[in-house]
Design a protein that fits this description.
The chain is of the alpha+beta class and 312 residues long. Helices cover 17% and strands 45% of the residues. The protein has a 16-stranded antiparallel β-sheet with strand order 9-8-7-6-5-4-3-2-16-15-14-13-12-11-1-10.
């Protein structure tokens, strides 16, 4: 498949403007509530629940799917792969400002995009490296690749798109939790009401307020704000509700609109998650195990970590 240079620039520009790596790095005091989930606990949960699938909704219509698969090598290295595929991403609806800034047509364009992230954890269940790749489904060449390596309290990030390359370093704790903003969160064990912590979001392309401050990191606050009953697989399920909000220091009101929400069963399984984008919410709903197995077949056919091999 051959796509125009304009299309490639548009896709990469959109991705850079919306991409972020989430680092749960600063833990607020929790007193008797218990500590928020640590990296080791989440890796343990992924090892127990090795295959998870999702459907992706925008304004109540399905626009894609996601699947996560965990494998453990004989050397006890854990590999976690996320594949997120948008079959019709309405960028002009979801990010109208970004779309206009990039010069998109008035009628908009429903993009077909695929984001694949692979994370590696060492035998102590600490993140050692990761790779995120953006591509058009059916095309072997990636539009953009981000590679990260953790070493001596630093995470080294390298972004490559065509001949363009950008690298940077950030401080990183070995026990911190990192993922990209497109990868679903499948498990959050050990929650208690009132628990709270902070999440750092690093953006390759700073947002306007970040450009002014010179800091490419946003801090958002997570809190378990109570319980809720949701309908999942034909039955009502009790869940903890985790709400993500902007840093009160950066907002007029401490009770700003949520940036996102998670609905988490007492066991730690995440059944539903939503993220604020534009004037709406991008929603991911967990699929049944049988549906996840079907998606896993697509994951196996997806392009592997080595660049240059084709996939369907």
């Amino acid at each position: 498949m051959i796509f125009s240079r304009w299309y490639a620039v548009m896709v990469v520009g959109f991705w850079l403007a919306t991409m972020g790596w989430l680092i749960r790095d600063k833990i607020l005091p929790t007193f008797l509530l218990g500590s928020p989930p640590k990296s080791q606990e989440i890796v343990d949960a992924y090892q127990q629940d090795r295959l998870v699938g999702w459907k992706i909704l925008w304004r109540e219509r399905e626009i894609g799917w996601a699947v996560s698969k965990t494998t453990v090598s004989d050397e006890q290295v854990t590999e976690l792969r996320h594949l997120v595929r948008f079959r019709e991403l309405p960028v002009h609806e979801i990010f109208p400002v970004v779309w206009q800034a990039l010069g998109g047509p008035d009628t908009g364009l429903k993009m077909r995009l695929e984001v694949e992230t692979t994370l590696f954890f060492d035998p102590l269940k600490r993140l050692s490296s990761f790779q995120t790749r953006l591509r058009t489904p059916g095309v072997s060449e990636s539009l953009a690749i981000v590679r990260g390596t953790v070493d001596k309290g630093q995470i080294q990030l390298v972004l490559q798109s065509g001949s363009f390359m950008y690298s940077t370093e950030l401080p990183f704790r070995n026990d911190a939790i990192l993922t990209d903003s497109f990868s679903p969160q499948a498990s959050l064990p050990g929650l208690r009401e009132g628990q709270q912590w902070t999440v750092e979001i690093y953006s390759p392309v700073p947002l306007p307020h970040q450009a002014v401050s010179g800091n490419p990191i946003d801090v958002i606050h997570a809190k378990v704000e109570g319980r809720d009953m949701i309908l999942w697989e034909g039955s009502r399920r009790p869940c903890w509700v985790v709400v993500y909000r902007n840093d009160p220091a950066q907002t007029v009101s401490a009770h700003s609109s949520p940036r996102g929400r998670l609905w988490v069963e007492p066991s730690g399984r995440v059944l539903r998650q939503e993220a604020k984008v534009g004037d709406g919410y991008l929603v991911l709903v967990r699929l049944s195990d049988a549906q996840a197995k079907t998606l896993a077949q697509r994951l196996e056919k997806a392009q592997p970590a080595e660049e240059g091999r084709s996939h369907d």
